[in-house]
Amino acid sequence: MAADPLTRFPSVAYLEKHAKRRIPHFAWEYLAQGTGAERAMERNVEALQDVLLTPEFGKGLLDPDLSTVLFGVEYELPVGIAPVGLTGLIWPGADQALARTAAARRIPYVASTVGTGELEDVGPMAKGMGWFQLYPPRDMKILESLLGRAEAAGFTTLVITADVPAASRRERQTRAEVTVPPKITPKLVARAAIRPAWSMGILKSGLPRFRTLERYVDAASMKQTAGFVGANLGGTLSWDYMKTVRTMWDGPMVIKGLLHPDDAERAVAVGSDGIVVSNHGGRQFDGAPASIEALPPIVDRVGGELAIMFDSGVRSGLDIARALALGADFAFAGRAFMFGLGAMGASGPDHVATLFELEMKSVLHNLGCASPAELRSRHPRFR
Questions:
Q1: How far is CA 215 from the centre of its chain?
Q2: How far apart are CA 125 and CA 95, in angstroms?
Q3: Distance (Å, rounded) from C-alpha 189 to C-alpha 66?
Q4: Tens digits of per-residue pLDDT, 297-311?
Q5: Number of domains comprising the chain
Q6: Residue 280 annotated among the catalytic residues of the structure
Q7: Domain with 60 in it
Q8: For the domain that residue 291 is a member of, what is the CATH number?
Q9: pLDDT at 166 over 60
Q10: What is the mean pLDDT of residues 274-295?
Q11: Are residues 240 and 142 in contact, defined by beta-carbon separation less than 8 angstroms?
């Protein structure tokens, strides 16, 4: 009899350890690495652990309600699935599994422009829970096309990534010979061969491709599509560009990757409905502050003027509670859900959602909170 998932994987940390043993080395290095000395990635986790909350007791019987309303939609948990690129490298069918989890658990799933599922495929699977993350194209016709396709596929909210002005140097990825497309070398074949579950999935689904972008490339090989990404996405984002996007998208618009209060004010000025305080999971600039350290000044500056969301370093329900206590309206996790995929396959993301739910309810009980909204009154402070 298979072990109960909660017994085998009682936290995201256990999923992380098992995922490392279950997916090939090059896929693990793509997922787990940061940039530079990887201190920004480490700071995200360490700084979250330094946030302390003070319990209040004598509250009587509590039945914490984790549901949260954001942009007029009620979500069952105050956490969503953050966008991740090249998802199919971590586990075959990753985008479809994430979309199904979002639909089943009623949490947001943010599909990446450079994910490996096609918008028209994964959008309907999310059943209204899908958000679309945009790496801004330089060609306005492609921008118009992507936005139209996202809307037609049922994506409700647009997330513009602002914190990738240029590709970052990711040294571990280089060392692990991670390339797009993957180079089929004897070393790659050997590394894949010792990960049979991953390899069987790849044989069934094929090597990961940027399916959403293939229609913009004359010959849609992975090499040519990857070249298209480098030549046509990013590098030109400006506040004027975001004003233009605002006129083209009727639903909620979110700007992701802000760390400075002045940028948060600019987001309000261009008509953004929300922002995500994030340093790209430590994958972009190693000298950035931890996202949780950047959150309070932004809340002080623009709290109440737009939705403030948090991302980077979330590994538990306690981390989600810490972000909400410091003023975030919602949180997102990327690597945690991908660890679930790597460790458990298609059922992994749902297990991560279960862990977050159980952990958050435990946190709220121990703090004497009936809902996430009460967390701000639990005197959050950095150690």
A1: 25
A2: 10
A3: 45
A4: 999 999 999 999 999
A5: 1
A6: yes
A7: 5-382
A8: 3.20.20.70
A9: yes
A10: 96
A11: no
